[in-house]
Amino acid sequence: xxxxxxxxxxxxxxxxxxxxxxxxxxxxxxxxxxxxxxxxxxxxxxxxxxxxxxxxxxxxxxxxxxxxxxxxxxxxxxxxxxxxxxxxxxxxxxxxxxxxxxxxxxxxxxxxxxxxxxxxxxxxxxxxxxxxxxxxxxxxxxxxxxxxxxxxxxxxxxxxxxxxxxxxxxxxxxxxxxxxxxxxxxxxxxxxxxxxxxxxxxxxxxxxxxxxxxxxxxxxxxxxxxxxxxxxxxxxxxxxxxxxxxxxxxxxxxxxxxxxxxxxxxxxxxxxxxxxxxxxxxxxxxxxxxxxxxxxxxxxxxxxxxxxxxxxxxxxxxxxxxxxxxxxxxxxxxxxxxxxxxxxxxxxxxxxxxxxxxxxxxxxxxxxxxxxxxxxxxxxxxxxxxxxxxxxxxxxxxxxxxxxxxxxxxxxxxxxxxxxxxxxxxxxxxxxxxxxxxxxxxxxxxxxxxxxxxxxxxxxxxxxxxxxxxxxxxxxxxxxxxxxxxxxxxxxxxxxxxxxxxxxxxxxxxxxxxxxxxxxxxxxxxxxxxxxxxxxxxxxxxxxxxxxxxxxxxxxxxxxxxxxxxxxxxxxxxxxxxxxx
Length: 581
Description:
Number of helices: 16
GO biological process, one term: carotenoid metabolic process
GO molecular function, one term: oxidoreductase activity
Protein name: Amine oxidase domain-containing protein
Oligomer: single chain
Largest sheet: 7 strands, mixed
Pfam family, one: Amino_oxidase
Helix content: 25-40%
InterPro entries: Amino_oxidase, CrtISO-like, FAD/NAD-bd_sf
């Protein structure tokens, strides 16, 4: 599993190059422009109109807008299905919210940093791992089993696994919390086999799903239900309901347990336990609290994941064009026939256009007259998660504790809720596991407030203004204090060699995200994430605005579902056979 908010179900959620008052981007990490050009020295996204903006002919079977994880998974699988695929990316680096960048020898993650399940195989593997397997690619990882937690009750090292967390609970929350946690695990872990019995890669958006999913995996589903018994099978009916309903049905009252469950849900999908599907949470519990489990960080940073997806795409004959900004999706007779670039170039799509942009940004690429009012109303009334503050630092490791862990979570006040602004800060120091991300003797750090920064505070501000710069100072202070708490007295903000502050306007500008949003704030039980088709024939969507939702595994699955839907059931079944699921 991967959380998108640390950011896997690692959104996925996230950005970068930075504003004009930040140091310039020196060179890209891992990513190369497929047209052989180097990124601009200032990280600019501007398309240069005096050259061919993409490799090869100006057409493809399928044109994919955006090279986020969802878009690359979709494009890679389509290429493996022997479709002619062209991915158009506005940025000068691929990866969307998950891309990496380098400044002064420090290689930064821009988004996801907490992962698990990369080394697993078979039906229950992480969807992203299944896609990489299908593309013949892998991502070497370092395994670890804990993260540091700083909460009002105290600071402790939270260990994953079936028993270690009990020790932390007893010390910081008491015996009652231990009993309630055991009661929760006893109730939900047996449900994990049902929650994980249907591989996301088996799903497609037509009646062919009866063959690729329902018939193919019916025996394993029935076996799971039989093993759970009547009580467990009844509990499995709650998989598509909010996880809070399971918590409430167990009559869990301990404040720490309920707060901890809300925190896990928020890290996973940007909503608390009353807004997340039970299936998602149970999948996560199975990844973290069963024997033999571990967390994983990709060697060479999260850019290695993007690089592997790009390799797989190009190896299968797909094309990626960077700095190719799509201005409009061209619609003829209610059918998406291609896209127009900012340069004015028309790229024809013979079979489909797939947007990896958010629902709001996708609708802005379409002529308003072609969209039904009901469709636009649904998009415009879908609530949004808020945006992010980011802090990227490069600093000397000399005075920092040698046993520093990679991940740290700071919760300032449970009473405000984990979704309150300036209340939760996530910190990643990936150089402790992958030293090549920083110069010798140095560390690289990424801290952020996860989808809780109100865009309204920043809306309309001039990025060059004194007001904007002052607001950056004020709103980044909570991250600085969290970093100082996590790294201890040996850390000095004044001595950092690289200091970068990203804001919601950074997200909006460089990720092309409407209002810099983390994604749709869709609560389980009240609504559901949209499917992948659209009112426009041959126009499909993947990514965090579509089912199954926010987070790296979710967007990888969404890309796979769209790719599967565009090929025959026979081709789809052959792929499942090839990767052993």
